C-alpha cells in the first residue's frame, strides 16, 4: 500500500515542519503552546520540537487567548527594523494569540487563524511582537477584520498578561508594549518574520 502524500514517518518539528499558512501573511497556521486554562508556562523546545515546562506562573495571570507561534517564522533583522527602539529581534518564532469563541482546552494543536492586528512588545531591547488573530471560520469572531473590532477589554487583558507574565516582585520590569497596531502593520510583521526565517534557515 502506498503512503499518502505528504507522509511523515516521524513527527515534523512544529516550528520547521508545517507551512506558515494558507495565505500568509493574512491567513496563517498557529501552533498552540498555551491555552487560557494554563497556569504553567510551556514553551516549544527548539531542539526536539516537544513542549517543555518553562516555569509555573508566579502570579495568578493566565493567557486570555490561545497562545503559540507561526511556523517557519523568525524574529530577526527585518522584524527588529519594524519596531522603534528595538536593538534586535528575539531570535524566536513569531508569537501569535488566537481568539476563539468555543473553549479549546488542549495545546500542541495546529489551527488556521486570520490575522487582525498585534501588540508591539519590547522585552529587554528585543522585538517580541504578539500577533493577534481570530480562529478561521469561528461562528462568533469570524467576521472580525481588524483588532479595533475586538472588545477593548479583551485587548486590555492581552496587554496586561504580557506586561505581567514575567514580572517578579521587587524587580523592575524589562517589558514595554506600545500602541496596538492593526491588520496592515501586522501583515508587515508576519512578512518580515517569514523573510527572516528564510534568511536564517533557508527557504
Précis, in short:
This protein has 203 residues and is of the alpha+beta class.
Mean pLDDT: 92
Strand content: 25-35%
Question: End-to-end distance, in Å?
Answer: 32 Å
Q: Report on the biggest sheet.
A: 5 strands, mixed, barrel
CATH topology: Inorganic Pyrophosphatase
* Low-confidence blocks of residues: none
Number of strands: 11
Oligomer class: single chain
Question: Tell me, what's the shape?
Answer: globular
Order of helices and strands: EEEEHEEEEEEHEH
CATH architecture: Alpha-Beta Complex
Structural notes for this entry:
The protein has one domain: Alpha-Beta Complex (Inorganic Pyrophosphatase). A hairpin with a 2-residue loop joins strand 8 (121-123) and strand 9 (126-127). It is built from three helices and eleven strands, in the order ββββαββββββαβα. The chain is globular and about 60 Å long. The model has no long low-confidence stretch (mean pLDDT 92). By secondary structure, it is α+β, with helices and mostly antiparallel strands.
Helix-strand blueprint:
Blueprint: E1 27-34, E2 40-44, E3 51-56, E4 66-69, H1 77-81, E5 88-89, E6 95-99, E7 110-119, E8 121-123, E9 126-127, E10 130-135, H2 152-164, E11 175-177, H3 183-201
Parallel strand pairs: 5-9, 6-10
Antiparallel strand pairs: 1-4, 1-7, 2-3, 4-6, 7-10, 8-9, 8-11
Index terms:
4-stranded mixed sheet, alpha+beta, 18% helix, 3 helices, 5-stranded mixed barrel, Inorganic Pyrophosphatase, 203 residues
Amino acid at each position: 500500500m502506498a503512503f499518502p502524500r505528504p507522509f511523515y514517518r516521524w513527527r515534523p518539528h512544529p516550528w520547521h515542519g508545517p507551512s506558515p499558512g494558507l495565505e500568509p501573511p493574512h491567513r496563517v497556521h498557529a501552533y498552540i503552546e498555551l491555552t487560557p486554562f494554563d497556569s504553567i508556562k510551556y514553551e516549544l523546545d527548539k531542539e526536539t520540537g516537544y513542549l517543555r515546562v518553562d516555569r509555573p506562573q508566579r502570579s495568578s495571570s493566565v493567557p486570555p487567548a490561545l497562545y503559540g507561534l507561526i511556523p517557519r517564522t523568525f524574529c530577526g533583522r527585518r522584524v527588529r527594523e519594524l519596531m522603534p527602539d528595538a536593538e534586535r529581534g528575539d531570535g524566536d518564532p513569531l508569537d501569535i494569540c488566537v481568539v476563539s469563541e468555543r473553549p479549546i482546552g488542549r495545546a500542541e494543536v495546529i489551527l488556521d487563524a486570520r490575522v487582525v492586528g498585534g501588540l508591539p512588545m519590547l522585552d529587554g531591547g528585543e522585538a517580541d511582537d504578539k500577533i493577534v488573530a481570530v480562529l478561521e471560520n469561528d461562528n462568533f469572531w469570524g467576521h472580525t477584520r481588524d483588532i479595533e473590532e475586538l472588545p477593548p477589554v479583551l485587548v486590555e487583558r492581552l496587554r496586561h498578561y504580557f506586561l505581567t507574565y514575567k514580572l517578579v516582585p521587587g524587580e523592575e520590569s524589562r517589558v514595554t508594549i506600545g500602541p496596538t497596531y492593526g491588520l496592515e502593520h501586522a501583515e508587515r510583521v508576519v512578512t518580515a518574520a517569514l523573510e527572516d526565517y528564510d534568511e536564517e534557515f533557508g527557504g
